[in-house]
Amino acid sequence: MIKKATLLFLVFTTIQTVFAQQDGFWDKNRATTKEILLGAGDRIVVKTEDFPKGTTEVVYRITTLDDNQQLAGSLVSLLKSIPDPSGISQGSAGAVFIVSKISGDDKCKYAIFSTNELASVYKESGKAEKACFVQNTPVNKDAKLLSFEKSACLKANASNLFFAFESDNWLMKQKIVLEVVPWVDHKLSKGWSPENRKSIIDLCKTSNLAQLMINPDDFCVCILDKMQMKYKFQEYQKLLASEKSKTFKDFGAECLSKNPANDAIHNGIRLDAFQHFKNKRYDQAIRLLHAGIIDNGNAKVLDYDALGNYYLYSKQFAKAIKYLKEGEKLDESELQIQLNLAHAYLLNGDYAEAKVIHKKYQNQNISALIDWKSKTLNDFEDFKKAGFKSNDFDRILKLFND
């Protein structure tokens, strides 16, 4: 029964590996494997191999052996069938213990330190107050996960750990096998620490376009993602100022391009522009919609309608007509465009053109719930509240009664 459960567990975790290890990998080339001969009652400090840049987790295994015993399988080989560190922390660590049965009768205590100085104090005195992990109960085997998020052992930019062992055998020496395998995050291995990523986000937010946005996070994260894919952070740092500027510009253009992956950014720009409009920041609304949507070839018919409306309220009637007619080219049956076009003509002093449009569509609905006449009346009320004055408002409304 136990064998069957073990087999099922390993099959499951192997399937998980196909997906999980896309974000990182167990670095077998920089794993620590050391056999330690510890004299009776002695203490010893063992430094791990240097951790690679981007290490976010480590798995370690400690096994005490008699002289005639050998380790059945290395920790590195075990980890081939285990997914990412989050999987281990959620239960996959069981696999570590399943295949870690080979051990001697001897036992040892151990503690883990982040610096050699702290470990040396333990070696001399046996005091482990400043250890980041302590195993005071003697064990003949142990295996654990240490993560950057949950363990004080892995501080920012930690390059090593120091394992301090104390023999529990006061008569004979004992052999201890220490194995430590680091998990390397792909992005962090390229130098993109949280601080470095934040520096790119902060720089992006100083750009002209980002400053027009109310919430530029999606846009700036998109640029950051592309930056991380193309460069190691050290490579980015070596770019000239002009090269960095061009890189931001090129990646920004890609993040605004006509691509379904950018839909969230486009929709965010539309919402931000509308919020500027509601707050009567017409210039910001116009510039944002131009830079984020119109000028990149991503405009839909209602984008031209929105832009025309923003120009209308900023009393730039000629430009309102220009962009509303651009929208009309995309879909002349969109009556929201037709109504705003009629408004633009009317406010620009061209009653005759406005009259033609109103007479043509006055008996139709703008949408399933709003008819042309009601929407026109509501719009005229909004214009009056915004300070627009025109005797032609009443003339248009009288048309509906003829």
Structure overview:
- The chain is an alpha+beta fold and 402 residues long.
- It folds into two domains: 184 residues, Sandwich (Jelly Rolls); 206 residues, Tetratricopeptide repeat domain (Serine Threonine Protein Phosphatase 5, Tetratricopeptide repeat), CATH 1.25.40.10.
- The protein contains 18 helices and nine strands.
- Strands 1, 2, 4, 7 and 9 form a five-stranded antiparallel beta sheet that branches. A four-stranded antiparallel beta sheet has the order 3-8-5-6, covered by helices on one side.
- CATH topology value of the largest domain: Serine Threonine Protein Phosphatase 5, Tetratricopeptide repeat
State which percent range the strand residues make up: 15-25%
CATH architecture of the largest domain: Alpha Horseshoe
| Mean pLDDT figure | 85
SSE sequence, one letter per element: HEEEEHHEHEEEEHHHHHHHHHHHHHH
Runs in which pLDDT lies below 50 for 5 or more consecutive residues are 1-21, 87-102
Give the helix tally: 18
Number of strands: 9
Question: How many angstroms does the end-to-end distance come to?
Answer: 89 Å
| Gyration radius, in Å | 34 Å
